[in-house]
Queue: 2 jobs
Job 1
Amino acid sequence: MKSTLADGVTWVGFVDWNVRDFHGYVTARGSTYNAYLIEDEKNAVIDTVKAQYADDFLARIAAQIPLDKVDYIICNHAEPDHSGGFPAALKACPNATVVCNAKCQAALARHFDVSDWKFLVVKEGDTLSLGSKTLQFFDTPMVHWPESMVTYYMEEEILFSMDAFGQHYATSYRFDDEADMPEIMQEAKMYYANIVLPFERPVGRALEKLGGLKIRMIAPSHGVIWRSHIAEIMAAYQGWRVSKPVKKVVIAFTSMWNSTRNMAKAIAEGAEEYDVNVHLLDMADNNNTTFVTDIMDAAAVAFGSPTLNMGIMPRMASALTYLRGLKPKGKTGVAFGSYGWAAKGSEEVAGYMQAMGMEFVCDPIACQFSADAATLAECREAGRALARVALQAE
Ligand code: FEO
């Protein structure tokens, strides 16, 4: 495995091949926790790894330099997948000073006993000379947490971008041009949809700020390092940031005795009369992670659940609750569902959609028990209306 980014810059992270649940995010392709060593007159490490992998991380550093020669460990982000290794690292590297911003220092103090840690607190635009090399720090609040910052290696034009531009993607390759690009872009999109989507304005501010830098390489905290497809990932972020829609209709449902399923299929049939991409997802067989990724760039959506105990079925409630927290923008849709004696399911689904600011092509479609011909016709018509909305996307 090649792990050299530039002369004196080495990847010292951990590849987590088998992580499958990242607090609810289904990481089907695992992940990496990237950390980097920069060797100069002073030696700096950028970020750590999850606490349980600190030994591997320290062994990678020790393969390059004695651990007592580590002068700085930079904390770009206090979330424990990157800061968890700090206690072990500071024990093993007795001469290391923690470099972070004031918010990060406060956050670290809430996670760990920092009473004997040495800190160098930096602020926006500050530089740190390592001898012949210089690091510069930029705050990127809410990408992903309030204290998030990035580190820029000025001479080599490498941006250590922390969570931004990351992917949950385990690979023995370190660089974008070595691995499978369609897989990487799909994982970057999934990462954006599940982690970054609520932060449109902070992402906009960060992109504007970082857009002024000369960048030869983007080294994020997860996944591969971008060196050949920087323009592509930057452009993708600009599109995802504003949830730029494509000509796609996503129909997601749960069903009890196939009535709501038949309604979903009828909506799909109506939409398929037009030249749009139609996705039909039974949420009993799909997870929330891929669901929200599919929704992110859909122009139109249909969500359905039968009534269960005067509410909706748990899988749909889980999916919609997760989606609502991610604040998707600019969607038009329809709610639907069958019922036995009270049409509560479709109403509750519509309530979720309303809470996400969605527009509707029609009132919720509900039917008692099996969907009859009139209901299915109504569903087909709703599908056509959704497709006409989707056709307006670029
Ligand atoms: Fe990868 Fe927000 O931590």
Job 2
Amino acid sequence: MAKRFSPILSFLLVLGCSLSIVAQTKSTDAEGHQWWQHAVFYEIYPRSYADSNNDGIGDLKGITSKMAYLHDLGVDAIWVSPCFPSPQVDFGYDVSDYENIDPMYGTLADFDRMVAEGKKHGVRIILDFVVNHSSDQHQWFIDSKSSRTTPHRDWYIWRDGKGPGQPPNNWISIFGGSAWKLDPATGQYYYHFFYAEQPDLNWRNPAVEKAMLDINRWWYKRGVSGFRLDAVDTLFEDPKLTDDPVLPGTNKQGDPNLENKYNTKFPEVHDVLQKLRKVADESDAVLIGETWTADINELNQYYGEHSNELQMPMDFMFTMVNTLSPPEFRRQIAAVDEAGGWPVYVIGNHDIVRSYNRYGDGKNNDAIAKLMGAFYLTLRGTPIMYYGEEIGMENNDPKRKEDVKDPIGRTGWPQEIGRDGERTPMQWNTDTNAGFSKKDPWLPVPLSYKTHNVATESKDPDSVLNMYKKVLALRHTNKALLEGSYTALNDNDANIMSYLRSYKGKAVLVALNMSASPQKATFNLAEKGFASADLKSLVATPQSSAKGTEVTLEPFGVFIADVTK
Ligand code: GLC
């Protein structure tokens, strides 16, 4: 006899089906993890990746031509820093049209081809969304500046000065000088946290908010899988324009040090993030945040009280540990791992000195680069790599002021040399200009390209590139690395950083010698639930090995092993 479903049961069934549809569209796995939690992200600075038309500047066709490389490396998503039309005062972080591609990088059709080619190779595209400011050449600002009563006037922050020649308050731009610029035609000042060519948008104006959310929708429809949100903590400022407290001393630009108390980190930022997140959720997209935070509590807030803000607020704390210090790394990892959100690890980007130089000791830099890759790519969380890190690219800093391209390097020279050094062309092979371009590139490649390039390193099993490839391949296939918990081991060891990644009775052990001398460590895995365990090497440097649960590591050696019972 056919049973009749009770209304409640049918309701639950319908609910169950719709939940599973949501789950499917959100591509969650059995652990509730979404695609971006299993993905490896990779930042591309488009000016410097690959130059298809040989004008000395990289472009989208260049990136498209490297999709197979990215796939083979083990990259699942690329974050392309701004490629929109821009006067390039801040190399694209001054956007003059949010819904187009700068001709220097190609066209929208090239963008579509890049998305399609990425799809073929399993590489998603993440764009950079410059939320705090536009270019002063954006039509919105041109109109805003044209008169005090124009419709776009209130899209930016305009105020009267305190008196003749006096800006509205003491706020300074982090790129140097007052954060206010007088527009003589309308007699008011506008606010810019960054360069004067980057006026701050007024997020308190609902029309601005609507325009920015619509821009997101527009790109999602074009196949973008998410955004990296630029400088999120600067979106709001105190409407009363209270002066920032003055601290002792001056900064690298020679300005007084201020505590950015009244022009950063306002709670309203979180309302905006929630709105951006709602739009992202409609497209199963991810929001990554440029979240410079003082401590873990601040970082934690960016996930949102109900996990409804950024899925991936970047943890920059690693970038501030510039020595190989196991105790310090243990402390940092424990903090973010226990905070409740999904950790996002970063060791380099286009604003900070390359990890190769920061962690390197000048003698063992390649070994240290391999060690750092084996380290942060095996932690619980999502890593964001920076292009060239996988081949041990080094900073190539300008030696003379006249060679500097980054404006802050010119205004702040020699205290502030700018960020050119970490933005040099990708080193593909031993050809002229490292195979990046046939024309002289916009920034010079360092001499190290002769040994540190994709072609040469691909042939050397012991290269930095091959260490990255091996670790990334393991990370994509090993359940303990994809899903497992993180447990620090041998807490008191000052030289060896070691941890277990465990999942459903299986585990991977990672042991990293952060010192320049050989080291040994014995692991008591019985107390972690692995009685009479053995270690079976998965990825290791040539002289590192294990006997039972005793591991021997060469200087800066890596040993990643399956824990077998
Ligand atoms: C972010 C970018 C940086 C840029 C600044 C202003 O910090 O990473 O490169 O200069 O925002 O947009």
